[in-house]
Recover the amino acids of this structure.
């Protein structure tokens, strides 16, 4: 990211590089840039961008407009900006503090964590000063309108917090003028009215505070037909209420524990939500309930107890704690009768005055608690029904509930789902329990152990306790013990272990949920959707969707995004332990084969999302399925430039085919490896595989034999133009027609054309390319067209026709962008830049060739990179940048030599000859180029170099 780049969204969109303001284009283009900035460092698919920028009214060109807009935005940004295209979409990568919205959020967070009120107040002032008007003003679209409202809400919240800090500091008079304006601007926002009343009271102006209440109430009743909410009514009652005498208080909260790390944000949220100054309501209102849910061992009780201790002074009539034992190993849940009996005793009701009838007990509890200010903690709740029956009868009481289940039926003021500890908090907890001296300075071992514990507080506490009580053990030793399937064993040992906690949650599930949970333990990948889950369990997708959501509610699955599910690491291990369906993996593999086998193009969204799972499923597939899998995945991975994964898939598939002695499977996979290998690493790389494929291919598979012989003929023709490659290609063409495989016909015609180009037979090559293009268009598969259009461009350039060549490359570029064909895009840019160079547009040619080189390097294909460097070298030379051109030719030469790429060597030597001002050196380089061309069998090229050598003295003399 270039230094000095600033993107401001808290007002009209403004982009600056240093002191210079940058225009990112017209209004809709600005909207796309704003969407990318708001989602910085997150990949957005083209479909998402189209939807977020144009809503329900996309342009006639549809999704094709997205690459164009992204390209224009990228061009407008300063060098070094990272607007990148990934296999899934587009992502704008931003360094910290580039975005003013991020600076605002960071500063507000810092203020919230500051212990000094004055410093917190100053930080809030600093954050609010970043606003320059209405956020994202003038930009179209529903999404940006929603973001505008969200940011405005965040500003108002920060403003309210800043004013609260002013009031807490005793600066009531100072806050009043601003609050008067805010109340006038937001007549229905009761937050500012409450703050104004508090400021007036703090200034000794109680009458005006009551008058403010009456005025706001009148506005709400007359214009909206509603009464003021709890906070505003509570502020009014504070002025009028006569305090009742307090009853003796009882604090039943358990010991908070010596080690409590992290959860600062969550703790502050709970305390803020249940602070009595925020909760003053009428006697008719229900008590506020805050529900904390999360998986076993996540630290729900610890958080509730810590919050309870911090809130104790707010609830002077008592702090009651009831463990309902909803998920306690070896115990039945506590009955309502026992729970309400405990609560009544907690507020001082003698045993002989507690009714025998449950309904009478509950009525007495509600009546007695209605006159008290109590904090009630209902821990480990089994369901919402139990909690509802135990709620106190006063609005000035507060209830904290913890449960492993999401209690959707509970009317809670606030819900807090606990996630895993942040890594720093996890290591802090682990170190505090194990002892600060146990890691011996090996921070990596501490972090590894925290990951082995899944950053789960219960697991961290158990691991830390084991280290503390085993002085001879090091953290690295415990890490070694926890690798693989031993983790749960190391974190167990008694009824409070991790496995025991998981077992209770599992046993509480209905049978259908238990079965699905166990089947999911066999899933080989990380995250999955309902279709994969249904396949594993052998059930219908709608049924699987309902069961998955139930498992999420039970905190046994995570839902990181809508429709996607995954396990916590430790829960995945437990699910694998209870799995017992031997056919589940086979069903999953067949599901993936059914979807992938129906075709992975042209829309690759599903394949891109599921790629890690497809690769994982291949590893566990039976041999017959693995062969089919590899044949489907290999072309997709090659098109996506996932070359390491491509090699692994082909290796796995070939091993399976060899074990099954499947000659046809071996032939097909060897063909793919040889065909892809020649383009990545040179023709010699693929020759052996293609020859072996030709030997193994069954005679009754003319389509397969056509493709193998076509690729083999092309490879042999590249390595040795004097070989029998022409006969192989003619046979390939005949077999393709025999098989009715029109795509194979297109491929073979394209190979004939490419070999003709290498022998400078451009007229014949153009005829082949145009025949192939007509047939490709007849087939209707646009993905076949870009390479043919690139070939036509080469022929047009050879005939010194740059304008038709430019037209062909633009068509190739458009289709390559639509279908995300990176290899074709790289070649299209190379030839497009060459056309501009021929037309005298050298600056533009250099820019385009630099783009081509970047793309070629990203494709990890050496031949693409050589071609791009040769083109860039020629453009740099035409632009008068001889040194830079020579550097590119030299790199192309070295890469071509390493890969045995004769044409690349010839092109690089010729380019270096053009760069040198010394005739003797140029003559030597050209002779070397001539020798390479002649030895490689490129006689037309060698003859052309001979003619040039004859003219060299005149040129360099």
């Amino acid at each position: 990211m270039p230094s000095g780049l600033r993107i401001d969204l808290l007002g009209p969109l403004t982009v600056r590089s240093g002191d210079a303001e940058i225009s990112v284009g017209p209004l809709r283009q600005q909207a796309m840039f704003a969407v990318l900035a708001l989602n910085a460092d997150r990949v957005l698919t083209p479909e998402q961008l189209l939807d977020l920028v144009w809503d329900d009214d996309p342009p006639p060109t549809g999704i094709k407009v997205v690459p164009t807009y992204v390209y224009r935005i990228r061009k407008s940004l300063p060098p070094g900006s990272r607007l990148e295209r990934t296999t899934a979409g587009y992502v704008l990568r931003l360094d910290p503090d580039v975005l003013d919205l991020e600076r605002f959020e960071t500063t507000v967070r810092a203020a919230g964590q500051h212990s000094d009120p004055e410093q917190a107040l100053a930080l809030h002032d600093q954050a609010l000063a970043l606003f320059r008007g209405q956020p994202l003003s003038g930009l179209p679209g529903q999404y940006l309108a929603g973001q505008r409202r969200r940011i405005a809400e965040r500003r108002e919240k920060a403003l309210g917090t800043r004013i609260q800090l002013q009031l807490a500091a005793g600066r009531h008079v100072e806050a009043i003028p601003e609050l008067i304006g805010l109340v006038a601007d937001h007549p229905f926002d009761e937050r500012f009215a409450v703050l104004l009343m508090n400021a007036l009271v703090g200034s000794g102006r109680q009458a005006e505070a009551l008058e403010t209440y009456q005025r706001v109430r009148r506005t709400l009743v007359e214009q909206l037909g509603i009464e003021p909410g709890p906070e505003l009514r509570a502020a009014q009652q504070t002025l009028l209420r006569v305090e009742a005498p307090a009853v003796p208080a009882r604090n039943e909260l358990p010991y908070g524990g010596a080690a409590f790390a992290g959860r600062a944000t969550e703790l502050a949220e709970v305390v803020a939500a249940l602070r009595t100054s925020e909760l003053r309501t009428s006697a008719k209102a229900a008590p506020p309930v805050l529900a904390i849910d999360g998986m076993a061992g996540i630290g729900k009780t610890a958080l509730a107890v810590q919050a309870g201790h911090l809130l104790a002074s707010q609830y002077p009539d008592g702090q009651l704690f009831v463990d309902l034992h909803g998920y306690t190993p070896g115990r039945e849940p506590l009955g309502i009768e026992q729970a309400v009996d405990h609560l009544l005793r907690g507020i001082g009701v003698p045993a002989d005055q507690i009714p025998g009838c449950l309904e009478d007990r509950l009525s007495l509890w509600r009546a007695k608690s209605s006159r008290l200010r109590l904090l009630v903690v209902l821990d480990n709740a089994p369901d919402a029904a139990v909690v509802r029956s135990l709620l106190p009868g006063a609005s000035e009481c507060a209830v904290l509930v913890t449960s492993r289940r999401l209690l959707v039926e509970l009317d809670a003021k606030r819900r807090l789902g606990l996630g895993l500890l942040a890594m720093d908090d996890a290591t802090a907890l682990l170190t505090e329990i194990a002892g600060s001296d146990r890691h011996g300075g090996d921070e990596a071992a501490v972090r590894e152990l925290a990951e082995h514990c899944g950053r789960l507080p219960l697991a961290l506490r158990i691991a830390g306790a084991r280290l503390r009580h085993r002085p001879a053990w090091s953290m690295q030793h415990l890490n070694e013990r926890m690798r693989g399937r031993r983790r749960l064993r190391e974190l167990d040992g008694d009824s409070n272990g991790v496995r025991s906690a998981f077992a209770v949650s599992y046993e509480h599930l209905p049978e259908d949920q238990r079965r699905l949970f166990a089947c999911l333990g066999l899933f080989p990948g990380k995250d999955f959707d309902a279709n994969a889950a249904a396949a594993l369990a052998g059930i219908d997708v709608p049924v699987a969707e309902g069961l998955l959501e139930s498992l999420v509610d039970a905190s046994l699955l995570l839902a990181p995004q809508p429709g996607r599910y995954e396990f916590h690491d430790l829960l995945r291990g437990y699910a694998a332990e209870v799995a017992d369906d031997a056919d589940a993996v086979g069903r999953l593999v067949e599901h993936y084969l059914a979807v992938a086998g129906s075709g992975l193009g042209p829309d690759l969204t599903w394949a891109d999302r599921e790629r890690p799972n497809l690769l994982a499923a291949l590893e566990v597939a039976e041999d017959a399925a693995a062969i089919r899998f590899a044949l489907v995945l290999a072309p997709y991975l090659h098109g996506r430039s996932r070359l390491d994964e491509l090699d692994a898939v082909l290796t796995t598939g070939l091993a399976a085919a060899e074990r099954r002695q499947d000659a046809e499977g071996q032939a097909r996979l060897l063909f793919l490896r040889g065909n892809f290998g020649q383009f990545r690493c040179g023709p010699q790389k693929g020759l052996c595989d293609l020859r072996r494929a030709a030997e193994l291919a069954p005679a009754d598979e003319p389509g397969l034999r056509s493709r193998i012989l076509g690729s083999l003929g092309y490879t042999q023709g590249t390595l040795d133009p004097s070989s029998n490659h022409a006969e192989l290609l003619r046979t390939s063409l005949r077999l393709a027609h025999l098989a009715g495989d029109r795509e194979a016909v297109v491929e073979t015609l394209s190979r004939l054309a490419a070999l003709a180009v290498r022998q400078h037979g451009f007229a014949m090559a153009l005829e082949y390319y145009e025949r192939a293009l007509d047939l490709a268009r007849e087939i209707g598969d646009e993905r076949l067209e870009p390479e043919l259009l690139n070939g036509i461009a080469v022929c047009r350039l050879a005939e010194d026709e740059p304008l038709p060549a430019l037209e062909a490359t633009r068509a190739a570029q458009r289709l390559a962008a639509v279908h995300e064909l990176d290899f074709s895009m790289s070649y299209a840019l190379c030839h497009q830049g060459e056309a501009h160079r021929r037309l005298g547009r050298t600056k533009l040619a250099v820019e385009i060739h630099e783009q081509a080189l970047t793309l070629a390097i990203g494709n990890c294909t050496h031949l693409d990179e050589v071609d791009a460097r040769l083109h860039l070298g020629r453009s740099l030379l035409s632009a008068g940048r001889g040194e830079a051109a020579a550097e590119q030719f030299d790199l192309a030469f070295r890469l071509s030599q390493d890969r045995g790429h004769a044409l690349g060597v010839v092109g690089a030597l010729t380019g270096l000859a053009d760069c040198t001002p010394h005739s003797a050196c140029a003559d030597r380089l050209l002779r070397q180029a001539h020798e390479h061309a002649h030895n490689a069998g490129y006689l037309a090229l060698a003859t052309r170099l001979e003619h040039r050598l004859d003219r060299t003295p005149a040129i360099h003399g």
